[in-house]
Structures are given as C-alpha cells and as structure tokens.
Amino acid sequence: MGTALPGKFKRVGNKIISKYGDRLEPDFNKVKTFMNEIGLYPNELTKRMRNMIAGYIVRKLKKRQSTK
Predict the structure, then answer these.
(1) How many domains does the chain divide into?
(2) For residue 15, how many C-alpha atoms fall within 13 Å in the half-sphere facing its CB?
C-alpha cells in the first residue's frame, strides 16, 4: 500500500501537467529538472515537496501512457 498524497501536491502536479504536459516525460529526474527550469524550486518548494510532486507527475504520465 502506498501513502496518501496531500491535496496541495496533487493540485500543483495537475496544474503542471495541464500547463506543460506536452513537454513532460515519465522520467523522474527529467521532471525534477523541468520543475527547476520553470522556477518552482527552490523558491516555493522544499526538496521533499518537489520530489513528491515530481513522483506524482511521473505516476500520472505513466498511467496516461498505459491507457493509450
């Protein structure tokens, strides 16, 4: 069983996917560096928060690919 992710992280992750979904790949390290490029880290997020959001984004992208 996994742990529940707070809604704040899901909202941020979904916002990033909806805004930049065409530029994202289901690779954790690439998503982390992309979040740095768009300016979310380190100003607004801690390292742990960034990693949790990046993991959520990767899971959503992998799920999206498997349904296609």
Answers:
(1) 1
(2) 10
Which DSSP string do the residues of 31-62 spell out, in sequence order? HHHHHHHTT-TTTT--HHHHHHHHHHHHHHHH
Give the C-alpha separation, 31 to 52, whole Å. 11
Residue type, 45: L
Q: What is the pLDDT of residues 21-40, one digit of tens each?
A: 999 999 999 999 999 888 87
The boundaries of the domain holding residue 42 are: 7-67
12 residue type, one letter: V
State the CB neighbour count (10 A cutoff) for residue 9.
18
Reported pTM = 0.85
| 61 domain residue, yes or no | yes
